Amino acid sequence: MARSIGRSRTLEENTIDVVVAPKAPMAPTSSSRRRIEVVRTRTTMQSSPVVWSQCSTRSPEAYAAGHIPGAVSLPHATIDAAALASLPARALLVTYCWGPACNAAAKGAARIAELGRPVKEMIGGIDAWRAEGFPVEHGQPVPSDAA
């Protein structure tokens, strides 16, 4: 069972529950991560004092074709402790992929939760982000050794 860390904060009718997986290894469950909608993600990112890191769990090529501004490329199959070490330790990580038919965000969120980091999965993915008219950046990810 996941345990809550920190506090819940209410921001414009939005509540953020920061959760992490338990210390003992176990299969990820739906309670070890939370889901957040696209509009709520953007609103909260703009107004929240919480440090957020958007993580594109798609391939580096998909990231280059378009990603949420400021997002890092973190393909779900490459997520391990070393990959997460380059991200702010106290950041709430928000995973996203292509859209509802893609499960890379769920796989990435489950792996991040297993590693004990706070995480949310943004439902709808980059497709929903674009459909809302939110900005998208293009370009290659920065290699982790150059960051």
Task: Work out the radius of gyration.
Answer: 14 Å
Order of secondary-structure elements:
EEEEEHEHEHEHEH
In terms of DSSP E residues, the strand content is 15-25%
| Main β sheet profile | 5 strands, parallel
Q: Helical content, roughly? A: 25-40%
Major sheet strand order:
5-9-8-6-7
Count the helices. How many? 5
Separation of the first and last Cα atoms: 34 Å
Mean pLDDT: 75
Q: Please give the number of β-strands.
A: 9
Structural class: alpha/beta
Shape from CA axes? globular
Low-confidence stretches: 1-32
Describe this structure in words.
Helix 4 (104-114) links the parallel strand 8 (92-96) and strand 9 (119-122). The longest helix is centred in the last third of the chain and has 11 residues, at 104-114. The strands form 3 sheets. A 5-stranded parallel beta sheet has the order 5-9-8-6-7. The protein has a two-stranded antiparallel sheet with strand order 1-4. It has a two-stranded antiparallel ribbon with strand order 2-3. It has 5 helices and 9 strands; from the N terminus they run E-E-E-E-E-H-E-H-E-H-E-H-E-H. With 147 residues, the protein is an alpha/beta fold. 27% of the residues lie in helices and 20% in strands.
Outline the fold blueprint.
Layout: E1 3-4, E2 9-11, E3 14-16, E4 19-20, E5 34-36, H1 38-47, E6 52-56, H2 60-65, E7 72-73, H3 81-85, E8 92-96, H4 104-114, E9 119-122, H5 125-131
Parallel strand pairs: 5-9, 6-7, 6-8, 8-9
Antiparallel strand pairs: 1-4, 2-3
